[in-house]
Amino acid sequence: MNSLLLGSFPNKASLVAPGGSCERSKIWTNNCLTIGTLGSYAPTTASWPKRKIKKEYNFLRFKQSSLVFRCEGIEGGPTCQECNRKHIVKATSGQSFESEPPAFDSKRILTSVKNSLDAFYRFSRPHTVIGTALSIVSVSLLAVQKSSDISPLFFTGVLEAVVAALFMNIYIVGLNQLSDIEIDKINKPYLPLASGEYSVGTGVTIVASFSFLSFWLGWIVGSWPLFWALFISFVLGTAYSIDVPLLRWKRFAVLAAMCILAVRAVIVQLAFFLHMQVLFQ
Question: What residue ranges are annotated as transmembrane (predicted)?
């Protein structure tokens, strides 16, 4: 009977070996339960001698108490899943000593630069820029009296006038957009301020910066016709767009037409012609 009962259990070393696998723990627990069951049903068959039955019963009780003690010792400790979980947490919480190099996405940078240039191109209203540049170049050529006038001085004067006028042109069209954001959301939703690509603060910064640059360049050049052309354009452009009492002349057809004619037909033609003549003197 002893050999039959003990032969169903694994050897002692495999049952109590520290750090055993989960399978061993499961087998050990099952075996403990089996021993407990068998211990509670001690053999009482009348055909066996009483002494033999008593010895076997005492042996099973002793074996059961020792096995249950060892099972409780194993069950009281951390399970294999808990140990594995602790090792995983430690492995994931540890800092990696290898740092990956930052990804340099040149395509994304080029796309961002392209979008920024496109937004500024639309903000500057290119048709007005082209018209201003062509007007200044054509008027400057009218001031040429002989072939020797086509010199580096001539190209320098034309460049100064074109750049200063374009700066002022961006101020005028930018102020107009700042004053018409709600209207442009319906009529011209592709403009940066109306579409939300530019914030109001960005628009104000661009407008103020270009007006300052325009006056600064006109002052540095030292040409009074150029400076007065910039100043008169500034005044008329502001009165045309800004929404304050007695201004915003674009609301009235006659005043709006007079502002445009004064800048395009008089100021640009006369002032820049005089600017080139000052350079030739």
Answer: 127-144, 150-175, 196-219, 225-242, 254-274
Query: Do residues 160 and 220 lie in contact, with contact meaning Cβ atoms separated by under 8 Å?
Result: no
Cα–Cα distance, 162 to 235 (Å, whole number)? 19
CA distance 169 to 48: 120
The pair of structure tokens assigned to 257 is 């037409």
Same domain (yes/no): 129, 254: yes
Degrees, nearest 5: CA angle 241-246-247: 10
What is the C-alpha to C-alpha distance for residues 184 and 14, in angstroms, rounded to an integer?
A: 84
DSSP state of 101: P
In terms of residue numbers, what domain contains 71? Answer: 2-90
Terminal-residue alpha carbon distance, the chain: 132
Domain-embedded: residue 177: yes
pLDDT of residue 88: 45
Question: What is the C-alpha to C-alpha distance for residues 170 and 176, in angstroms, rounded to an integer?
Answer: 10
The rounded distance, in Å, linking the Cα atoms of 200 and 213 is 20
Q: Is the pTM of this model over 0.90?
A: no
Same structural domain for residues 65 and 144? no
Whether residue 114 lies inside any domain: the answer is: no
Task: Considering only the C-alpha atoms of the chain, give the largest distance between any 2 of them, rounded to a whole number of Å.
Answer: 145
Total domains, the chain = 2
Residues in the chain: 281
Instruction: Give dist(CA 147, CA 102) in Å, integer.
Output: 59
Tokens 């099952």 sit at which residue? 30
Residues 138 and 244 in one domain: yes
